Amino acid sequence: MNSVLNIKEIAIAIVADSFNPLLLTADFLKYGGIIPADWELSRQPVLSAMASQVVFQSGVSILAQANRLLFVEALVATDPKEVTLATIAQKYTHALPQANYQAVGINFTGFANLMGDTVHHYLTNTLLAPGPWHSFGETAPRATFRLSYTLKQAQLNLDIAEVNWQISEREEQPAILFAANFDHLLQSSTPSGRLQELNQAIDRWPTYLETYHNLVNSRFLQPERAVSPV
User: Fold this and answer.
1) What is the residue extent of each domain of the chain?
2) CA 34 to chain centre
3) Cys-Cys link to 154, which of 76, 104, 182, 229 (CB 3.0-4.6 A)?
């Protein structure tokens, strides 16, 4: 196979015992210095005691639920220095230092764009061994599975699936989804210690991005160029 990974999104998921979703407003974010003052909403925010969400024209969205914060940014910029999500997530958690933070996940979503039946054949005959399981049901089976890797500083879960990748409003193409989750359970016994661990994990996102990129490109899409993991 000769393809490359197109990375489309970064997300940071933060778990705590309790958040107040009603705190998540554009005013709270701007006046607290969490986001730039000139950012504009791309649609009407959602605000409720169950869940709140704000979406900005910059491509950043923030979701708050009772026990989870989710920060998402579309990777339209190729230069990692232009990604703002990590700083926003850290400023948000610093504004709520007493939250009982439990875990943080650094997540990436990307696609490998192939042609036609190559996607299905690659998943079911290259990544998975051919066998009688192929010939069951009315149509060929679609493959979706997870691989878990233990790294020095995180658990990496890699979800792989056959999907239709929407490349424009009117056009879709068969593709392989590679979704990575670098999962951290916070170990400190104090809130300040867990906050420090959380921010250290977020600081490592460029390293995780490189690890994800190298893993998929060199071990799955272009195995002849395999490199050692970070």
Assistant:
1) 5-19+67-225
2) 20
3) 182
**What would the pLDDT profile of 27-40 be if each residue is shown by its tens digit?**
999 999 999 999 99
Nearest to 72 by CA among 29, 109, 46, 24: 109
Q: Quick one: CA dihedral 82, 89, 46, 102, positive or negative?
A: positive
| Burial category of 69 from C-beta neighbours within 10 Å (exposed 0-12, middle 13-18, buried 19 and up) | buried
Query: What is the distance between the alpha carbons of residues 118 and 173, in angstroms, rounded to a whole number?
Result: 12
Contact present, 159 and 219 (Cβ < 8 Å): no
3-state secondary structure the chain: CCCCEEEEEEEEEEEECCCCHHHCCHHHHHHCCCCCCCCCECCCCECCCCEEEEEECCCEEEEEECCEEEEEEECCCCCHHHCCHHHHHHHHHHHCCCCCEEEEEEEEEEEEECCCCHHHHHHHHHHCCCCHHHCCCCCCCCCEEEEEEECCCCEEEEEEEEEEEECCCCCEEEEEEEEEEEEEECCCCCHHHHHHHHHHHHHCHHHHHHHHHHHHHHHHHCHHHCCCCC
Q: Tens digit of pLDDT for each residue in 124-156? A: 888 888 888 878 888 878 888 999 999 998 999
- Please report, as a single letter, which amino acid is at residue 1: M
- In the block, residue with structure tokens 């940071």: 12
Distance, CA of 214 to CA of 217 (rounded, Å): 5
Q: How many beta carbons lie within 10 A of that of residue 97, not counting itself?
A: 10
Q: Considering the entire predicted model, what is its pTM? A: 0.90
Q: Angle formed by the axes of helices 85-95 and 191-203, to 10°?
A: 170
